[in-house]
Design a protein that fits this description.
This protein is an all-alpha fold and about 190 residues long. About 75% of the residues lie in helices and about 0% in strands.
């Protein structure tokens, strides 16, 4: 898992200058709450995070270089992420939202080439459909079990939990923001 994350995040980053981009990507992934809470559990979470990282990496790589094999890896990683943990649909939906917004932005700026966004989104969509097909025989059991039922909660503990979560998100990201800002400053000081 760690070797795959290094390879996907650091070694061949989508832009020409791979080291800085890759380390920032790995730093963002490592400072997320799901990574910190679940990366060491042996229930598929580390594979899930790895597949999410690979899905985003190959989508970005396709948007930069338009190599068809990258579309295959987007589809495969999206399928594997959703098949390992169905709630990875949120990651895939986030990727699709990003691709859709970027495609609309490029269209508004009168750029002619937006088909690459369509193909990247289609590759992720095919991965989602393949995972949904694999879950079809047990779909009702996956979506209606006791662990996924919605419960309306009007108590103060929910507000406390949300404030705790926001506090943890902000504190963890402050360190990331400081490291990122420092690396940008040192990068520009070193190149001048």
């Amino acid at each position: 898992y760690i070797g795959g994350e290094y390879r996907a995040g650091v070694n061949p980053a989508p832009t020409g200058d791979g080291r800085m981009t890759g380390w920032v990507a790995v730093l963002i992934v490592v400072t997320t709450i799901p990574f910190q809470n679940f990366c060491l559990q042996v229930r598929g979470y580390s594979f899930s995070i790895f597949f999410d990282l690979v899905m985003v990496f190959y989508a970005a790589r396709y948007l930069f270089f338009q190599k068809n094999r990258d579309l295959f890896f987007v589809t495969l990683a999206c399928f594997a992420a959703l098949y390992s943990i169905p709630s990875n649909l949120y990651s895939a939906a986030g990727l699709l939202l990003f691709i859709g917004v970027e495609m609309a932005w490029q269209k508004l700026r009168n750029k002619a080439e937006v088909s690459k966004y369509f193909w990247a989104g289609s590759a992720a969509g095919v991965g989602i459909l393949l995972a949904a097909l694999c879950y079809l025989p047990i779909f009702k059991q996956v979506t209606t079990n006791d662990y996924v039922k919605s419960v309306v909660s009007h108590n103060a503990s929910a507000i406390t939990a949300v404030s705790y979560l926001l506090n943890e998100l902000i504190v963890g990201r402050v360190v990331l923001a400081v490291v990122f800002a420092g690396s940008i400053i040192f990068y520009f000081l070193g190149s001048s």
